[in-house]
Write a structure and sequence with these properties.
Layout lengths: L8 E3 L6 E5 L4 H11 L5 E5 L5 H12 L3 E5 L2 E5 L13 E2 L4 H12 L4 E5 L10 H10 L2 E5 L3 E7 L8 E3 L5 H12 L4 E6 L6 H8 L4 E6 L2 E7 L8 E3 L4 H13 L4 E8 L6 H8 L3 E10 L2 E9 L20 H10 L3 E3 L13 H11 L3 E4 L4 E4 L20 H12 L5 E3 L12 H8 L2
Parallel strand pairs: 2-15, 3-14, 6-7, 10-11
Antiparallel strand pairs: 1-21, 3-5, 4-5, 7-9, 8-9, 11-13, 12-13, 15-17, 16-17, 18-20, 19-20
Helix pairs in contact: 1-2, 1-6, 2-3, 3-4, 3-5, 4-5, 7-9, 7-11, 9-10, 9-11
The structure holds shikimate-3-phosphate (S3P).
The site of shikimate-3-phosphate (S3P) has 10 residues, from helix 5.
Length: 442
């Protein structure tokens, strides 16, 4: 984060959101394009890269291991070292707030015979790394994490990595991707079995770079196999807009009366589009315009108009396809007519914060009626009436960008406004968020 001191802010009630806006590039795709570009021999060019702190942490790590990652005009240019060619970094890899950088890079390093230390901020240093340490140890990498299997952590990749077949015990695209990336420099076939499908950007992009990767479906499982010692070919990549960033504007425009907003260039990969489906089930008006493909991913412009929302029971099977969107969905539920029930969301407890506890406390502080259960929230909505907003209390964001942005949206539909303790974490994924919000509701 850029400044040392927390940066509190009161998000005031606002008028309708109107006009057109474009959200920044997809965070997941941005990380992967920098990592794979850094492993391809030759120049990869990327436009639309998310320039948030998380992706910049990935870029710095790839530079520290020998790649060139530079911006030239609107384009990022990456010169890779080749699969197997990563160099020993001279200092600890500083991951900031980014779980994706950490877990995917641990995978990459697991099959390179180098030693590296990973450090992160207070939020990242609480997050579980055992879920990647376990499979990557089977490949032959060695780890010395902090107590509890967390950062700071030291690892040494395998000199002769062993291909594994691994069934994911948690629905995690980060764990899947870590293993597939380790498989890139492992002789033979590495297999990941996914009982529940998660975002498939790694699979799409590995194929795009020329890796031999097969996906089969059997008995409800997705079986993904990658052939190792791959040679990656440099690519030209256009990163689509991030649906997880668009989510804040989809909910804001749905909730604020009179809104009619077009969010351009939103990635709608089915493994990411769960929120659109759930908001529509709640009665939202979201129209997909000019559906097309960008960078091998489905994309559309979304026209979102204000609509009265109704509470629903959210199907837990949709959770992986909207895992980062729950904080803002909870805000939508707080303004809907009737009760919204969510469950099966244990994974939200190990994100940048415990998002169930953080959002239950935040919404209660803003005057919403919310009950926290073991694995979800139950919210009684106001039926469209504005929330009270915060009184003397600030919302604690726990270094979590999505709590900050979700509660900023709550501020728009409150009487007193919502004051949050720190806006700095927003820069991890969406540096222009506040400016775009002000412009849309001006
Ligand atoms: C991500 C996967 C998800 C998501 C995170 C980004 C990715 O995490 O929450 O923001 O880019 O692979 P999990 O895989 O841990 O669910």
């Amino acid at each position: 984060m850029n400044t040392q001191q927390p940066s509190p802010r009161l998000f005031q009630p606002a008028g309708p959101l109107r006009g057109r806006l474009r959200v920044p590039g997809d965070k997941s795709i941005s990380h992967r394009s920098v990592m794979l570009g850094a492993l391809a021999v030759g120049e990869t060019r990327v436009t639309g890269l998310l320039e948030g702190e998380d992706v910049m942490a990935t870029a710095a790590a790839m530079r520290a291991m020998g790649a060139t990652v530079e911006k030239s005009g609107d384009e990022w240019r990456i010169h890779g070292v080749g699969v197997g060619g990563l160099l020993q970094p001279a200092a600890a890899l500083e991951m900031g707030n980014s779980g994706t950088s950490t877990r995917l890079l641990m995978g990459l390093l697991a099959s390179h015979a180098i030693t590296a230390a990973f450090t992160g901020d207070a939020s990242l240093s609480k997050r579980p790394m055992g879920r990647v340490i376990e499979p990557l140890s089977r490949i032959g990498a060695q780890f010395t994490p902090s107590p509890g299997g967390t950062l700071p952590l030291m690892m040494t990749g395998a000199r002769v990595p062993v291909p594994i077949e691994y069934r994911l015990p948690v629905a995690s695209a980060q764990v899947k991707s870590a293993i597939l990336l380790a498989g890139l420099n492992t002789a033979g076939m590495t297999t990941v079995i996914e009982p529940v499908p998660t975002r498939d950007h790694s699979e799409r992009m590995l194929r795009g770079f020329g890796a031999e990767l097969a996906v089969e479906e059997a008995d409800g499982d997705r079986i993904i196999t990658i052939r190792g010692e791959a040679e990656l070919q440099p690519q030209t990549i256009e990163v689509p807009g991030d649906p997880s960033s668009a989510a804040f504007f989809m909910v804001a425009a749905s909730l604020v009366p009179g809104s009619d907003l077009v969010i351009e260039n939103v990635g709608l990969n089915p493994t990411r589009a769960g929120l659109v489906e759930v908001l529509r089930l709640m009665g939202a008006s979201i129209e997909e315009m000019d559906a097309r493909e960008v960078g091998g991913e489905p994309v559309a412009d979304l026209r979102v108009r204000h609509a009265a929302l109704g509470g629903i029971e959210v199907n837990p099977a949709l959770a992986p396809s909207m895992i980062d969107e729950f904080p803002v969905l909870f805000v939508a539920a707080a303004l809907a007519e009737g009760r919204t029930v969510t469950r099966g969301l244990d994974e939200l407890r190990v994100k940048e914060s415990d998002r169930l506890a953080a959002m239950a406390a935040a919404l209660a502080a803003a005057g919403a009626r919310v009950e926290e259960t073991e694995d979800g929230l139950v919210i009684e909505g106001t039926g469209g009436e504005a929330l009270r907003g915060t009184a003397d209390e600030q919302i604690t964001t726990h270094l979590d960008h999505r709590i900050a942005m979700a509660m900023a949206v709550a501020g728009l539909v409150s009487r007193n406004g919502v004051e949050i303790d720190d806006t700095r974490p927003i820069a991890t994924s969406f540096p222009a968020f506040e400016a775009l919000l002000e412009r849309a509701s001006a």
